[in-house]
């Protein structure tokens, strides 16, 4: 099924034109209230500048005065095909956690490159993060093509540069489009300035992206979120991350590996509780089981041969986000995956990698620094229920917490 | 799953996530407008009709009479535990919008909320703000920490990957939790239509005008509209070019006013 709306993140290096592209998309699709255009004209006049599209997104006073995006933001526009939610993400290295916050919500990404500068460090780092976040629908926009005098050869040089790097991070872009966000060339409509370019405009390419809602396998994966009491009964609350739940089924509870039975599935419609027979993936449910030993963090699964893994030793790739503190081998952290939160340590950093060029910095490292990627081995105090992220994404990815803060994001690779 | 159901399910997940961690220390802010009434509807859904936490109305005393009537009617009908928060001291001093909107909003809304938070010891507050309402609100996190002075440290916001939200707080912090951040104005009305959610009559056109965003009677103006039903409002929003908060004074008195208000703890 085609989605009615698509969440799109615009990533790329600082000053390569992300916010300007968003402004252009909004303006050319007629998505801006007149009042907003007037407000921006007024602010630009006040600051003595030409009309600046980036102001549509850069709302913080500091962002406008320093002419840069600090935090991620979201805005909306419509094509003839569907609605878009655009997520802008800051390009500066020091705001990488804001970029990841924005990008982790996206269905698709536009990686923007300033044609006059080419592929730079932060372009590559953002591409790597798209891979880490498992965003498969990526379109490359080579911006400021007007500055290259609409030259095909110069465009091809950059195109080859980026394709070469994307191959290393296992991304096959859906298209590489030459654009000028400032002038509007090839953004919404095809430009006649770029006659050598045979492809579609950026928006036409975006409209082609099909993102499916449909879920994955038939196996139930229901992490318990909470338990509440209604009319004296214990109701298990949770979101079905995969498969479906059927009233009367025998299921398994992990990590304990006990069998339990689903007695009732509750739904609330209008002002009444009604009972359901079957509920599918993506829904938050309430259910009653024949067990008193259930608690937050356990995962309810279909009882068959395809159960998720349960282990206290796991391997993963992590991206270190904390600017203020490096991870040092042996430091205590909490790992949060679905509703499971388990304390532990990283006992080995097998590889320390530079996220901007994928260069191996060190084997068997003792420390991990801001924006570095680590291939690491965890030793957890209790077993974690996990599964390959291609089967159930929610059970294959996690965040790390230290001193109340999210300090890293990661993808589980395997058992040790 | 269609788009509205997807938005609904995400919101229920966030509400339950908040409650799982802040039982007994959480409340929902209810301004009685369309967004927070929809949030209230979703909270009831998340807990099968019985809200396990109080709802709080920040009463500036300058609200419309329709708002007070609606509040009292549904508090009774839905069996809500209602807290009315008022900054009595500032009202006694005669703080009002004519003397300055910035001071008025800060005293009667932000400070009224601060007083209530201290009184009840809440650590988490559910609020129905949305990203599409205002550029500043678009910068928000779902779980947004505030310090003891209510300051929003927008330069140093936590990472929020997928739907893993920051869950732990330092001693003097509290959370603003925003379960509706990903909805648009149009989505809200489509949901009100689908679920048949009761909504105050101020939103519907009378004599060619209706309120699109409701705050205090003194500081918001109706917009031109002939939409008399929820369905007509949904249709109107498909074509309108006017911003939702066009009738709200506090966004416009000076440049960056919303940012300044929010930095100080405004909703």
Provide the β-strand percentage band of chain A.
35-45%
Number of helices of chain A: 7
Strand ordering within the main sheet of chain A: 2-3-1-4-5-6
Q: What's the tally of helices of chain B? A: 8
**Largest sheet of chain A, if any?**
6 strands, mixed
Widest sheet, order of strands of chain B: 3-2-1-4-6-5
The N- and C-terminal alpha carbons of chain B lie at a distance of 31 Å
Number of strands of chain A: 24
Shape field of chain A: globular
Key phrases:
A: 416 residues; alpha+beta; 6-stranded mixed β-sheet; 6-stranded antiparallel barrel; 18% helix; globular; B: 267 residues; two-stranded antiparallel sheet; 8 strands
Plain-language structure description:
The complex is a heterodimer of chains A (416) and B (267). Chain A has helices spanning 18-28, 34-46, 61-66, 96-103, 121-132, 152-168, 202-208, and strands at residues 5-12, 73-78, 83-88, 108-114, 137-143, 175-178, 221-230, 233-239, 244-246, 250-254, 258-269, 272-276, 278-280, 284-289, 299-302, 309-320, 327-328, 332-337, 340-354, 360-365, 367-368, 372-386, 397-402, 405-415. With 416 residues, chain A is of the alpha+beta class. In chain A, the strands form 5 sheets. In chain A, strands 2-3-1-4-5-6 form a 6-stranded mixed sheet, sandwiched between helices. A 6-stranded antiparallel barrel of chain A has the order 7-8-14-11-10-15. A 6-stranded antiparallel beta barrel of chain A has the order 16-22-19-18-23-24. In chain A, strand 10 (250-254) and strand 11 (258-269) form a beta hairpin. With 267 residues, chain B is an alpha/beta fold. Chain B has a 6-stranded mixed sheet. A two-stranded antiparallel sheet of chain B has the order 7-8. Chain B starts with a helix and ends with a helix. At the A-B interface, helix 2, strand 2, helix 4, strand 7 and strand 8 of A face helix 1 and helix 2 of B.
